Amino acid sequence: MSDQVGYVNMLNASAKVVEVFKTNVQDKRVAKMIIMDLAQLLPDSKISFDLEDCDKILRIESHQIIIEKVIAIVRRVGFKCELLE
Question: Taking the model in full, what pTM does it have?
Answer without folding.
Answer: 0.83
